[in-house]
Amino acid sequence: MRYLCVLSIVMIGLLTTTSAHGQATATLRGRVRDAQAAPVAAATVTVTSADTGFTRAVPTSGDGSFLLANLPPATLDLTIAAQGFATATRRGLLLEVGQTLVVDVDLAVAAVRETLVVSAATAAVDTSRSVVDAVIPSTAIEVLPLNGRNFLELALLVPGNTPAPNFDPTKSNSVVISSAGQLGRGGNITIDGADNNDDVVGGPLQNVTQESVQEFQIATQRFTAESGRSASSVINVVTRSGTDQLRGSFSFFARDSAWQGLPATYDRSSGDSFPFDRQQLAGAVGGPLVSGKAFWFAAAEYRNQDGAVLVGERDVAARAIRRSFAAAPLDDTLGSGRVDWRRNSADALSLRYAGERAEDTGASSLDRAIGSASYRQRSRNSYQSVVGTWTRVVSPTLINAATASFSTFDNAIVPIAPGPQHTFPSMLDGSSFRVPQGTTQKRFQLADTLTLSRGAHSLRLGGEWQRVNAAFDLGVFQDGRLEFIEDFPSYDSNGDGRVDDGDLLFAVTLRSGKPDQALVIPDADNDYVSFFVQDDWRLRPDLTLNVGLRYEMDTDVKNVSRVDEINPIVQPFLQGTRGRDLDNWGPRIGFNWAPGDGRTSVHGGYGIYYDRITLQIQSLERGLDGRALPIEVRAGNVFYLDSMTGQFPPFAPSTANPFTGFILPGAGASGINIIDNTMQNPSVQQFNLGFQRELPWNTVLRVDGVHDLGTHFIIGRPIGAVYNPVVGGPDQVVNLESSVNTHYDALLVSAERRSTSFGFRAAYTFAKAFNYANDDQIPFGSGPIDPDNLRLEYGPTPNDQRHRFTLAAWMDAPAGLRVAPIMTFASGVPMDILMPDGLTRVPAFQRNAGGRIFETGADLNRALVDLNASGGINGQPLPYVRDDVRFGDGFSSFDLRISRPFTFAGHVRIEPIVEVFNLFNVTNILGVSVKNYSGYANVLVRDSADPADPGFMQSSSFGEAVSTAGGVFGSGGPRAFQFAVRATF
After folding, report:
1. Is residue 363 a contact partner of residue 309, using CB atoms and an 8 Å limit?
2. Which residues of the chain fall below pLDDT 50?
3. What CATH class is the domain 145-984?
């Protein structure tokens, strides 16, 4: 702690930390002129808040310009006074997080007093920035129907953002956003300026109750140098603070299985059912500690969910996979408290604590479309965070903002049932090989931003330091994994006179060479340092240049400190010397041209952005080093099968005793992992060009064309094999390297109207996203088809959605009703076409070719005919599918909230609420896994493993709808009603 305090003082004193705090604030700038358009110097520009008594004043410079930086996002009043002129007032100016509001004022002669009231809800054309972003205001957060009450789902109302498939077992109940074609592991979320990201495996960490969120900004592309650690989007969340009035709210939301339908893929003939319900209680209250100076705010939420997850069950007699429900309970508690203190006119301090504890049961990460009930896992996640900020007004033109935060994350996952994992072509059974496991993360963060105003220049500079201490406790592969080549046995392979699961054929088994010993990595630590400079230069009244430069550096994501500990048997594969990636310079340049009356602006620019490398990469080299967690890959019973009799001998491995086959080189991308000495942080070059136009009825239209080129993204490439004495056989060597790219091109269109009585946000995205891997930078699955030709991996991302349209609105209706709908329409995602064993895709086809290269099953069959005519794959023909099979499904959902507020005693409001999700009960087929996000069965599994059987050349299960979007409870799932009541005072 002494070290932290000393370092905090040094960092603040030297102004060498981040802009994270600056991104949780807003900026007001403009110019003051007289009636002849001459600049008015030395005018006093003052902003005030009626809610808190906040006030700040600055003089105009010689050219009449003024700038007020680091303002709290709020509704403020602006007053301009100058000797010899009438005082001008602008009331109700809306300042939003991460935004810059430009207000130019012409002063009248002293005899005329001007007061202009501006609607705080009015959207305005951005006339000063080139970032592609949007702000979700408090109105939308409060009134729109949210399935699960996670405010981050509102980011999907912004073009360029889609839901991301699940990539990590610790994120089974998280809302993960895919922005600009990335898959969600990257991105950067800050809450009140504090980093809220998982440096261990990626994705967001702590959730905060909807009651405590004031607003949030999502910058999808081309954000300024103040933000970093993301090659896709940045989300800046601002929590609510207290005011000079005691205010509070209480809400209760309830759902029940009697009020909703069942997923379309549920097998109703089974007769199984499972009750599911959810109750959420939330409350918030805040007020003054010292009137006009100090305020407090606290919020809490509890969710109790007796949930269910759709699971598969093998019916051996019928040779079918039945679908039923399995219990998936969830208990989630959120809480936060905040104190704000304006010590004097120069110093403002804020301190916030937030915590969350979640315990749930659900499906583990899926490599297939569905898992069994035994494949579920129990998770416990605990989060704690404290963040403090200090804003110092050094002079009217110089402001310093410092942030310090500390957070902890503790995750533990255990299986529902004992292993091993049974990987069938169409489903997963047994216990996931990924559990038990646990991770912890502690983050220390110091940040500082200095804002300097000089005439037309708004200059910000600062930096950031983070210390992340992480640990892994991994019981992975202890129970092992069997890779079956058929869903059901075809004949009596073991010669016992009956056909049952003892006759199942499996290709390989994978198990830890130390099955009684978990892999423990107690010190996967890293320091992150960055600094930046950003200048928004108002070159002339209608033209602003946004110029910035950011530098970022990690100390140990590449395991630099332990390179001498790498297994000597793979040292010959390491080329050159290993060092930190020290050239991560990110220049950003943009412009905003707003000619005429400021109702139209044209903006664009270019920038380089760097993504974080998660510490899981370090754990792969340290864990899968051939010694700490040696993976024994052994031959399955298929290697012992007699081609003449169709039987295997008694000494062959069996389902009862599977791990006895001979050693094989590592299958997939496990083996011995090494980090390439030249690995670099993934980076994306981002280009944008667009315009905004104010339309009638206070509506703003925005159109952006964007192009992103990602380089140095990570993939695991097999580069050879070595004899590993620990496993007693050969082991594959996998090089973790920065050698693949990503591409994203999109047209982003949005229209927004702000009003308390009627407002809306409409968004349309037309996009194409390509990359080289489905597993999003953690190469833990199957490796590339040809390690020497990575170009063969190039294809659409698993969540590539070409078209997406959303419309959210809120309006006052007759009889005092308030109506708020959300409509979503989207095209289907592509589907990988996998070999009959389900291990790899068909090598002759593009990755995720279903729905892109092949539009119908007939298209696929024509390609299979040609492929089989040329010898098939390794001399084996592939089975055919139905001509009418589908590769993907569009998404359509209509959510609606209707409420009726009643006011009592002048200030107490009671609001009964009815919500319905997916009102028209549209079936939306969609999965959850990066391996198969389409939701349709994508393995060419044969109806029979007997080459003499006609079923050998048929795959009747291919293209079968397996899972629906949202499962039982989630967005796009079956129609569901929710009833609630909200009280405010």
Report:
1. yes
2. 1-22, 119-121, 668
3. mainly beta
